[in-house]
Amino acid sequence: MADQLHSDSDSTAHGCNGNAKKQQDATSIVERRQRDHLLGEMSSAYKSVISMVGENPERQGLKKTPERAAKAMLFFTKGYDETLDDVLNEAIFDEDHDEMVVVKDIEMFSICEHHMVPFIGKVSIGYLPNKRVLGISKLARIVEIYSRRMQVQERLTKQIAMAITKAVQPNGVGVVVEATHMCMVMRGVQKINAVTVTSTMLGCLRDDPKSREEFLSLIKK
Ligand SMILES: Nc1nc2c(ncn2[C@@H]2O[C@H](COP(=O)(O)OP(=O)(O)OP(=O)(O)O)[C@@H](O)[C@H]2O)c(=O)[nH]1
Ligand SMILES: [Zn+2]
């Protein structure tokens, strides 16, 4: 799965002059995987975990829990089954609009790859179109592809920015993720109010302070 992630993270946004070379859409490298056949084996694994924590997996309330837990885990990681091409569904439109497009506060649910517990928060995305715009729901769908995996917040942030770059080759992209990590809340240091903020700025949003400020002011409350 690491290879699959890697293939989505090696492009950059175009420069402010819009003359940078055309990006190759590498999404075809990402193979679709169907994992429903794993349900039986995953259920057995969860049954073992239930026994190991000291419960009786055969008691009525827990009888179907291994299968439910396996289904839930497959849902939490459904991003491994999705490709950028799938979610874009060709909803890329030629549009002579060169002002910033921002979609903010997109809910995000992910799984911390260190502890396999959730981290939850919101994602704000802005981009400067370069003759093409994305269907706005596709920004949220891109968040789903990469958040529904085992992740670290920094990588998630970058992958979202890279995917938008691949999709529409904009003049700039900014992504800000704010999240609460349950591994810091329910265990470990147990800090319930700590919020982690990560950002990736590409192209004009990286190089031009005015564009970056515009993005950051638009996503402020
Ligand atoms: N940078 C980064 N770190 C993360 C993320 N999610 C969890 N972590 C950290 O991963 C680290 C793992 O540290 P370890 O010392 O190996 O694990 P641990 O003993 O469980 O650590 P504690 O959480 O401090 O109890 C912890 O500091 C977590 O806070 C993330 O998205 N990004
Ligand atoms: Zn964690």
Defining traits:
GTP Cyclohydrolase I, Chain A, domain 1, GTP binding, GTP cyclohydrolase I activity, disordered N terminus, binds guanosine-5'-triphosphate, alpha+beta, 38% helix, binds zinc ion, 7 strands, GTP-CH-I_N, elongated, hydrolase, 221 residues, 22% strand, five-stranded mixed beta sheet
Can you give me a brief rundown of this structure?
It contains nine helices and seven strands. The chain is of the alpha+beta class and 221 residues long.
Which band does the percent of strand residues land in?
A: 15-25%
Name given to the CATH homologous superfamily of the largest domain: GTP cyclohydrolase I, C-terminal domain/NADPH-dependent 7-cyano-7-deazaguanine reductase, N-terminal domain
Distance between the termini: 36 Å
Radius of gyration: 20 Å
Give the C-level CATH assignment of the largest domain. Alpha Beta
Q: How do the strands line up in the largest sheet?
A: 5-2-3-6-7
Q: Give the low-pLDDT segments.
A: 1-15, 17-32
Number of domains: 2
Largest sheet, strands/sense/barrel: 5 strands, mixed
CATH topology of the largest domain: GTP Cyclohydrolase I, domain 2
Tally of strands: 7
| SSE pattern | HHHHEEEEHEHEHEHH
Organism: Macrostomum lignano
InterPro entries: GTP-CH-I_C/QueF, GTP-CH-I_N, GTP_CycHdrlase_I, GTP_CycHdrlase_I_CS, GTP_CycHdrlase_I_dom
Pfam families: GTP_cyclohydroI (PF01227)
Pathway: Cofactor biosynthesis; 7,8-dihydroneopterin triphosphate biosynthesis; 7,8-dihydroneopterin triphosphate from GTP: step 1/1
